Amino acid sequence: NLPNKVFRVLKKIYPGPYTSILNASKLVPKVALNRQKTVGIRIPKNNITLSIVKLLGEPIVSTSVYVDGVGYLEVPEDINEHYRNDVALVVDGG
Predict the structure, then answer these.
(1) How far is CA 70 from the centre of its chain?
(2) How far apart are the C-alpha atoms of 17 and 79, rounded to whole Å?
(3) What are phi and psi of 49, to 5 degrees?
(4) Are residues 41 and 20 in contact, defined by beta-carbon separation less than 8 angstroms?
């Protein structure tokens, strides 16, 4: 549970371009935890992402797309080319 003061701040900033680092509760799967037992929470102001979350009825767990020797992939065509056999879908949200 979040303290009321923290909840009020989060309610004001989300959705938006922020990531909040919070202490993980026991509801967070161990595979998603780091050594500090914290998680980053982000609710983007992006209609595509928000629609997917609404349809799923669950949060999305994700990370940046980093490839050793290449760096971060940001262009949907590059992501699709590199991960063509590993993912079902790459969405180009502009």
Answers:
(1) 22
(2) 22
(3) -60, -45
(4) yes
- Count of residues in the chain: 94
pTM (two decimals): 0.66
| CA 10 – CA 76 distance, rounded (Å) | 30
Encode pLDDT of 48-61 as tens digits.
999 999 999 998 88
Question: Residue 76: what are its φ and ψ, rounded to 5°?
Answer: -50, -40
Q: Is 62 helix (H, G, I), strand (E, B) or coil?
A: coil
What's the burial of 42, exposed, middle or buried (CB within 10 Å: 0-12/13-18/19+)?
middle
Q: What single-letter DSSP state applies at residue 32?
A: G
- The distance of Cα 35 from the centroid of its chain, to the nearest Å, equals 19
Q: What phi and psi, each to the nearest 5 degrees, are found at residue 7?
A: -60, -45
**C-alpha dihedral, 71 to 74 to 24 to 55, nearest 10°:** -150
